[in-house]
Amino acid sequence: MTTDTNKPKSDILDKVRKLLRLADRSRGSTENEAKVALAKAQELMTRHNIDSALLRMEQGESGGGGFTVNKAKVDLPKTLNPADFMILSLLQSHFNVRTILMHDGRGTPVDIIGAPQDVDFAIYAFNYLRQTFFRCWNEFKKTAWNPDKASYYRGLRDGINAELKAAKQRAEESYATGQRQTYALVVVDQTAAITRFVDENYGKLRTRNCRARRVDSSSYFAGETKGRTIQINRPLPA
After folding, report:
1. pTM
2. Which of 8, 27, 43, 159 is positioned for an S-S bond with 224, CB 3.0–4.6 A?
3. Looking at domain 9-227, which CATH architecture does it have?
């Protein structure tokens, strides 16, 4: 199966821009057309990330040597919203970054650690998802009887998680087995570099254990269903 490995970066980004324009509801696209266009853009960006990793490997770079670890911060309130924990778990699962909560008495700064481009994407995704979680909840609670916020957010997280996994799998399956194995090695190297950075700069960290709580099935199902309709796309340069 052919890939976009040898296409110039600008050609790939031009394709993504066209798909994002097709996904713009303000331009008259239907909801289904927008969803299809966004899904294709998401897969194409995933393939672009894989191509970049494969190119670095071909040039002799690796996570241990050529991989640069960067750190940025987002500021959250002192008392976190239930959505924040769900969103941070999505960032760590899908955006190749590590998130660390840094309580300072006045608020909760969150350090986001990874490759510079991954950190930028994670911050974009975090802000986009936080707005999306709040908007979806505010819409849902107006139509539901006795809705449960935490259950809805959990379902929303699981629905988005399923879609992100599916998009990643579709993109990776477009590559030959050897290419997928090479990319897997790059990811392992990057993870090791991030872990070293965290160990050297933060020392021993305490893992936060979330309390088990009752899940309202109707709120959870509504959130999961909505989550499967949400697409996340990397912000592109103008």
Report:
1. 0.75
2. 159
3. 2-Layer Sandwich (3.30)
